[in-house]
Each structure stands twice: as C-alpha cells, then as structure tokens.
Amino acid sequence: MTELSWLGMGLIYIILIIPIILNRILGLKISRNLLQTVIHMSLQLILIGYYLEVLFRLNNVWLNIGWLLVMMLIANITTLKRAHLGIARMLPGQFIAIGISFLTVLFYFLLVALRLSPWYDAAYLVTIGGMLLGGIMRGNVVALERFYSALQQRNREFMAMQLLGATPKEACKPFFVESMQAALMPHLANMATVGIVSLPGMMTGQMISGGSPLIAIRYQVAIMVTMFVAMELSSFLSIKFSIRKAFDERGNLKTDL
Prior knowledge:
Blueprint: H1 6-14, H2 17-26, H3 31-58, H4 61-82, H5 87-113, H6 122-153, H7 155-163, H8 168-193, H9 201-208, H10 213-246
Helix pairs in contact: 4-5, 4-6, 5-6, 5-10, 6-8, 6-10, 7-8, 8-10, 9-10
C-alpha cells in the first residue's frame, strides 16, 4: 500500500483554496467556518488516531468496553443537541434506546456473522461500532427533529385528532410514520446506488490497503444491512422512549422540550 505521508496530508489542505475562492466570488461567508471545521476535524482525528494505536496495541477488554460506552454517550448527546431536545430530560431514555439497538446489532455482527474471537478485539469492536453509531446518529437526528418539529408546527392537527377521540399515541402515529420515512429513505437511496455511483469508505479502505475486492464487498454489504437495521430500530425506540417525557398528563406537547 502506498502510504500518504504527513507532507502529502499538508498538500491536501492546499486544495481548499478552490472553495475559498468560490466562496469569495459568491459572497458566501463560510470560509472561516470551513477552515475552523477542517482544523478541528484534523486535530480530533489525529488525537483519536494516536489513542486508537494504544487501544489496539493493548486490546484490553475493559478499555475497549469503556471506549464503546464513551462513543455511545457522545453519540447520544450529539443526537439530542442536533435534534434541539433537552439533554437532561431525554438522555436516559435515548441512551437506553440507542444502547439496545446498537449493542444488539453490533454483537450479532461480531459474534454470529463474523464469529470474532476474542469478541472484544478493538480492531473490529471499535471500528465497526463506530460505523454503526455514525449511521444510528444520523438516522436518529432526522427522526427526532422531524417528529417534534412536525408536532409543533401542526399542533392543531394533533389536537384535533384527540378531540375526535384519538389517544395521544394514536394522534402521534402519522407524525411517527413521516419521521421514520425521512430518517430511512436517504440510507435506502444510498444502498440502491452503492457500487455503481459510489464506492463506500470501508470498501475502498480495504482495497487501498491491499485487500481483495470480493472480501471488501462482503464486509460492505454486511455493514450496510446491519446499519440499516440498527438505524430503523434505534429511530423507532428513540421516538417511543422520548414520547414518555414529551407530553403532559393531558396529552399536550410540553413547550420546554
């Protein structure tokens, strides 16, 4: 495998001059934000890279589980922030919802499909877990944000259904269905075009490192299928668990979400 040197990495940043020039021509005031984001991303990934070097070398079961829990906590907090929901109120339910879906699918992949031994091998537990969590987080953000924004914007419709005899749970169902569709359709579209329009990151990474394309394809298919399962289950449970904290005794949506 041809290694990308630190000099090569530095040269990559030079190409950012293209969007910076375009931003200036169009009057888009995002160049500073772009540079700050790239610097933040780079520093974060470099630090994580050094940490993972140690984690992979030690390959200790408790360190690996601890890092997995940290990843889950950060994913939950990020999801709630992006969905504009209260962290203190919603975090316990969301942590359980994501935990059930994420750990079920992750360990099914590792223990049943891959038959990994030892099961806590950081090279698989952390990397595959990170990919699954990333997909879960994207799905949950869309599902939760769409569900509660629709309820707030169409509150009269929601209240009217209750006045006609629907329970709060029944009145929520149309909004629930819409939010789930919004969360899942982008991933379905991605699966429909993968391999023809785009080659996913995991697959290309394995091939660049010298792996067989056929092995890389098997891993990619497995990841995309399990990610979809985890995303749908997590989005479903996240909305279900959040509803318990979102409505008052009369079935009205709380204003301080």
